[in-house]
Amino acid sequence: MTELVHPDRVAKLAAIRAAGGDPYPARGVEAEPIEALHAAGGTVEQPGARIGETVTIAGRLLGLRDFGKLIFAPVLDRTGRIQVGMQKAKLSEWWPERKFLDGGDLVAITGELARTQKGELTIWAHEVQLLAKSLAPPPEKWHGLVDVEARYRRRYVDLWASEGVRDVFVKRSRMLSLTRRFLEARGFLEVETPTLHPIAGGATARPFVTHHNALDTDLYLRIAPELYLKRLIVGGLERVFEVSRNFRNEGISIQHNPEFTMLELYQAQADYRHVMELTESLFEHLALELNGTTDIEFRERTYSLKAPFARGRYDDLLQEHAGVSVHDEDAVRAKARELGVTVDPALGYWKLVDALFEQTVEDHIEGPLFVTHHPTAISPLSKPDPGDPRFVERFELHLAGMELCNAFSELNDPIEQEARFAEQVASKDPEMPGEVDVDYVQALEYGMPPTAGLGIGMDRLAMILTNQNSIRDVLLFPTMRPRSAASPDEPIADGDDE
């Protein structure tokens, strides 16, 4: 047993077994959702139709208030909580067993639905069954750095012990379901593509590497499903999407987790303008369905997700915020030196431009704002703007200093794509693929129609729609340092970043 186990509870466990009881019975009970009882309970002035009925619930005891011959205890299930009253007069045979109960135990209660003199909806028990004995006592307080660390490590406790946490994850689940329905209504097909990739491609990131023994080859956990989804466009599926778990071997912060959820979609006969409109419509739809309004509160500010969103070109925004033009290399380098922005010279000028853009523009965008027309040199999978091939038909959506999505008209020229892949390999950038994806080039050689693609970071979107400051608050089990490397008194700092 671990250090969490309380000896008094272990003694009660032994006593239950000694008395012939089973603290972990093999069968559950047919229970009603507590939420349904509240809905049917009416009010003090107008009692509901079920007041006086015998009902059964199952859930976790959140505490016990023992008044000698009377015990009150709130019980929590997945839908809500309700007060249970236990009276010696109605439970005379069971009453000696009350001493075996503790806060945190899982129980089934059968009794009469009623209201107390103070008007609180209550189940007056005439049968109490222990479903699982809790050996670890529930937390009394959940605040401060120590407790934040424990909440992430022990989400299985946090979900019932911390106010509002369960609601965040219920809303996140609804967000994903609503997204799927939204896309399906527009003719998109949900698909599944490989998680293990022979080449780490489709995005710029450091991959996780693993080894397949039977094939004796290294494989990569996917950093993005993009190249496989576009193969399906070549295959004629025309509108596809995937809600995928992706993995990037990078830093941890309030906006980054090495394992994260992304929505990617691809639409044939579309360009970046079409998916820009789709993105606006989706965000507006989710805000209305989940929160009842397009005005959302996030990090103590109010943002409007009502379409359409503002637009701004990459080069214009850099000129506005940094005071330099992307075409004036000397000015860009001077500004970078002034601000202490550095990149490996081997990665080239445009990497420096993008690093300068991140520091002077991205962190200060309140939004929502579509940043459009990124430089071609940093957009290897995007189609060039026919009016100015130095830039591509691409956009990123930014809100509250965070990038929420990336999208573009897809490059479908196999010769140009192969050349760009070769440039990536030659750069020796550790975040770029180490070899040309020949199979993807061959797919393009069969012909891919004009296509637009979109990727949305669903964890960050969940942060915004549930008003949570950290990505760890919308992940059930965020990545944490091993206990050997971080004590419970030393949570991961919000400033730790890639």
Can you give me a brief rundown of this structure?
This protein has 498 residues and is α+β, with helices and mostly antiparallel strands.
Structure commentary:
Helix content is 30%, strand content 25%. With 498 residues, it is an alpha+beta fold. The strands form 5 sheets. An 8-stranded mixed beta sheet has the order 7-11-12-21-20-19-16-15, with helices on both faces. The chain has a 5-stranded mixed beta barrel with strand order 1-3-4-6-5. Mean pLDDT is 92; it is low at 142-146 and 485-498.
List the helices and strands and how they pair.
Elements: H1 7-18, H2 34-40, E1 54-61, E2 65-66, E3 70-77, E4 80-87, E5 106-115, E6 121-132, H3 144-153, H4 155-161, H5 165-184, E7 189-190, E8 196-197, E9 209-212, E10 217-221, H6 226-234, E11 239-247, E12 259-268, H7 272-291, E13 295-298, E14 301-304, E15 310-313, H8 314-322, H9 329-339, H10 349-360, E16 369-372, E17 384-385, E18 388-392, E19 394-399, E20 402-409, H11 414-427, H12 438-445, E21 451-457, H13 458-466
Parallel strand pairs: 4-6, 7-11, 15-16
Antiparallel strand pairs: 1-3, 1-5, 2-3, 3-4, 5-6, 8-10, 9-10, 11-12, 12-21, 13-14, 16-19, 17-18, 19-20, 20-21
Helix pairs in contact: 5-7, 5-13, 9-10, 11-12
